[in-house]
Amino acid sequence: MVTDPGRFDVIVTDNLFGDIITDLALDFLRNRPPDKPFFLMCHHKAPHRPWEPDEKHRAQFAGKFIPEPATLRDDYTTRTDAIRECRQKVLEDLTRRDLKLEPPAGLSVAERNKWLDVAPMEIETVINGQTRKLAGEELRAWKYQRYLQDYLACIQSVDDSVGRLLAWLDQNGAATNTVVIYTSDQGFFLGDHGLYDKRFMYEESIRMPFLVRWPGVIKPGSTQAAMAINPDFAPTFMELAGQRPPPDMQGRSLVPLFKGSRPADWRTSWYYRYYHDPGNHNTRAHYGLRTETQKLICFWKTDQWEMYDLVQDPAELHNLYYDPAHKKQAERLKAELYRLKKEVKDDDQYAVQQPPHDVSGVPAAKPKPKP
Q1: Angle at Cα 315 formed by Cα 313 and Cα 321, nearest 5°?
Q2: If you ran DSSP here, which 8-state letter would residue 331 be given?
Q3: Side-chain half-sphere CA neighbours of 251 within 13 A
Q4: Could you give the dihedral angle defined by the CA atoms of residues 330, 335, 339 and 340, in that order, rounded to the nearest 10 degrees?
Q5: How far is CA 188 from CA 47, 109, 367, in A?
Q6: 191, 66 in Cβ contact below 8 A?
């Protein structure tokens, strides 16, 4: 709470932020005008790095064995330089802070932070009562387990919070006339391709959870195969509220899909772009196209490309772009890529310099890169 300008009083509670966020959401629901419609967005941060669950959820996953993804030890054969150069790998880049290792006693704050920010390539730990030194593949496996145990504990805390909100709607007679949407801003690498975090246009990063409960309209347990993207969120919310989206708004309302109808002109491809190079994880800038069965990615600063057949190669292990047998397919996907790039009015205006973090202005014009 703020008591005077320039000074903040911090109220410390035993609850973590997820509980506080959920408590505030429930307060809103209890205190809203009961005779008026409402719109509530409840955003949780718990699954974000450094994945710090509360003790209850930490204990729930401590010691659990999490199955490894098939691509945890991906050797990146046929891929471009970008995935080799990135700094978001489970083995090489998870830090002591991520792994919850305890610093030596007697360090200053600066020394402690420096120690925690190191990504160790050898550790000493206790396993089954015995002290062991781990390196190489043993260390990779151990780091993966520590990462996933904490990550899944954080996810469980979000699930519990969502359950509290749904229970309130059920108990207060609001469930039958309330649309509930559970989603995220992106996917996440959980050891897939040896990675954590997101950013790359691989499936684990771009596929987002999207679950909807709309009693009387959506049949429980039903699914919809049509492509939806996050620019569709705003038009969807507007239609649910009885409003018409403005003509310059990107995306389309998902309400027809909720009702089980796929419009004849619904998209069969979509455009992706990632700018922050080198950014926090040295992830190379790229843009790309995803169709219902194929993907094309361009790392435009180095003019390197990747192309995948998602039916035959869903794990995206075999880059077909430089295979002469797939040259015509690559050209067709390129044409669609540039069509969509133009459709969303991406003329590389942010390719060299992005807007300020506070989005208070537009960066100065810079030379445009080659398309």
Answers
A1: 55
A2: H
A3: 19
A4: 0
A5: 10, 31, 33
A6: no
- Collapsing DSSP to helix, strand or coil, 54 comes out as coil
Angle (CA) 296-194-186 rounded to 5° is 55
What does the alpha-carbon distance between residue 146 and residue 134 come to, in Å, rounded to a whole number? 13
The β-bridge relationship of strands 304-309 and 180-183 is unpaired
Q: Say how far apart CA 109 and CA 181 lie, in whole Å.
A: 42
- Give 286's strand partners: 274
Lookup result for tokens 């109220």: 11
Residue with tokens 């391709």, as numbered in its chain: 193
pLDDT in tens, 91-145: 999 999 999 999 999 999 999 999 999 999 999 998 888 899 999 999 999 999 9
C-alpha 10: how far from chain center: 30
φ and ψ at residue 121, rounded to 5 degrees: -105, 5
Predicted TM-score of the model (pTM):
0.89
Please say whether the beta carbons of 348 and 280 come within 8 A. no
Q: How far apart are CA 59 and CA 63, in angstroms?
A: 8
What is d(CA 319, CA 302) in angstroms, rounded to the nearest whole number? 16
DSSP letter (8 states) at residue 195: B
CA gap 112, 104 in Å, rounded: 8
Q: For the segment 156-213, what is each residue's pLDDT rounded down to a tens digit?
A: 999 999 999 999 999 999 999 999 999 998 999 999 999 999 999 999 999 999 999 9
Long-range contacts of 204-210 (CB under 8 A, 24+ apart): 206/272, 206/290, 208/183, 208/184, 209/182, 209/183, 209/184, 210/181, 210/182, 210/183
Segments making up each domain of the chain, as ranges: 269-354+367-371
Structure tokens at 283: 């992830």
CA distance 344 to 97: 40
Let me know if domain 269-354+367-371 sits in CATH 1.10.10.10: no
350 has which bridge partners?
none
Distances (CA, A) of 164 to 214, 215, 220: 18, 18, 20
Asked if 191 and 148 count as a contact pair (C-beta separation under 8 A), the reply is yes
